[in-house]
Amino acid sequence: MTSSPGRGLLHLAAAVDQTEAADAGRHVELVRLAERGGLDFVTLDDCPGSPGTDAPTVLSRAAAVTHRVGLVPAHTGPLHVRAAVAAVAALDRISRGRAGWRLDAPAAGDGGGSASVPLEALWREADAAEAAGAGDASGPAGAGRAGRGGWGSEAVRSRPVRVVDATEGHARAVAARYADVALVRAANADRARAVREELRAAAAESGRDPGSLRVLAGLLIDLGEGEHAAEPGHGGGGPRYSDLGPLYRGGPVDLAELIGTWHREGAVDGFHLTPVEPRRDLERLVNGTVALLQHRGLFRTFYPGSTLREHLGLARPAHRYAAPRGAA
Hints:
The chain is α/β, with parallel strands linked by helices.
């Protein structure tokens, strides 16, 4: 596999949310399909309601039948941040280092007056929960306890990867400080490149290595009608804005061209793709777009490592809350 001069390897991720009622079994099927395509990770928004359909529990089930793909549940604060930290720690143990998580601020208008809680405050609380050892708590699927080391114990292969939606301006400073992966919804390469450069500069100003931040463009994808369905602003013309965000409508081949071009030009480190029709579009992504990128040497044909950090080319951090070796 090759990469453009000065560019890192291409990273691909997909959402596995369902448009219909939550069905844990269908989520798991989509995760297995994503792994078949070699995707770096999948994301799943929390879906409260029926028992066993919250994102960490569903992805814990997926961890039992997959081996490499990263698993990233979302949590919308501010309630239960400490519990979310514990749940992700448990998922990281179950999956042997494949977990990440996305912590989102509630949208304006959500109940409970929670819209006033800024994203920065949520991530500070998450840091405090780590410091207090919330990662030692039991999580989904009876994962048990990590022991005194918390995130840094021998049972945890790597600190879960932090994912932040950095589309909105107020979220970028947070992403630059806390995120391993920043998601940016952008309908053209110039917009994506500008935000990526802004994020990398802010990361450097906060004392981080800008190279430790992966910036993925977020797109909705509708592959239902193939290449002939591409309209002006779609297919070869690129995505267009929709009520739900930037939308690509066309075929797998044109999508592969778009992905390869944006990455080659340095606009992004990869893509986070949300299928409009989950099963259909993810199948066409894996069997069409990804297969073509692999054939062209632009995307890996196998996982070189076993943890999500390895997939993303991120160093394993020495967690500042880990117990020293030999501590009683």
